[in-house]
Amino acid sequence: MIAAAVTESSLGRPFASFTGTRNFETVLADGDVVASLARTVGYALAVSVASTVLGVVVALALVNATRAGSLVRTLLLLPMIMPPVVVGTLWKLIFNPGGGLIDAILRGFGAEPASFAPLSSSLWALPAIGLADVWQWTPLVALLVYAALLTQDASVREAAALDGAHGFAFFRHITWPAIAGTVGAVLLIRLVIALKVFDLVFVMTSGGPGQSTTTTSYLIHQIALKEFDVGRASAVTLLFAVIVTAVTVPIVLLTRKAAHE
After folding, report:
1. Phi and psi (nearest 5°) for 125?
2. What pLDDT, in 10s, does the model give residues 191-210?
3. Is the pTM of this model over 0.85?
4. Residue 189 to residues 23, 172, 201, 257: CA-CA distances in angstroms?
5. pLDDT grade for 72, boundaries at 50, 70 and 90
6. CATH numbers and ranges of domains, the chain
7. Cβ atoms of 102 and 94 closer than 8 Å
8. What is the mean pLDDT of the chain?
């Protein structure tokens, strides 16, 4: 990877000549590359936080569930076991303005046909992909947090309830300390998955409209396999690795701190 990034490399002529830092200078001066890096980080942070918050809420609900709990846990596995390509196709059909599920519901309320087309909007296309992403991966967060909740000593919860701890106070002082380390670890896993999103973008929008949903992984794919510029693609990959490290290291440190408190 490093060798390709500092040379002029293509699929047909790898490592043709040494170029030094020219590939890095080229990608840093490319507005599309810089925009894709910022877009990917913002997208990953948003969907990771959303998945984690929703997953914790679902896990707390599962703990309090009785007979329906096992059925819900089974249903939660369905989005996770579906391949991302299938998830992307499913949500593309849901958002289809020509008879998709949301379009049919809106027409039932009297809206004009094809009045809702988020995947064709540069403003709403990325949030639409994010919704599909959250739907697929929130169950993972929920099940891992649920497992952490099961390890909590029931006598501690009962004693806290007898002392009058209820609602948010109970969650803050009893539940949260028991699951904080797990939530931090799950957030880190979710963030890494979101940072490398490719399948959903490829299936749902192909990076469009324009460049509005072009994430870094999809951009690397375009540069390497459509423009055949392996050297520039390698440079983008290394820059992306540096950014991923900078984003994830603080979460790792916070997770370690929460686990030891």
Report:
1. -65, -45
2. 999 999 999 999 999 999 99
3. yes
4. 31, 23, 20, 17
5. confident
6. 2-260 (1.10.3720.10)
7. yes
8. 87
d(CA 38, CA 94): 28
More confident residue, 161 or 139: 139
Residue 170: other Cβ atoms inside 10 A: 16
* Per-residue pLDDT tens over the stretch 39-64: 999 999 999 999 999 999 999 888 87
Q: Which two tokens stand for residue 23?
A: 């590939």
Nearest to 132 by CA among 99, 86, 100: 86
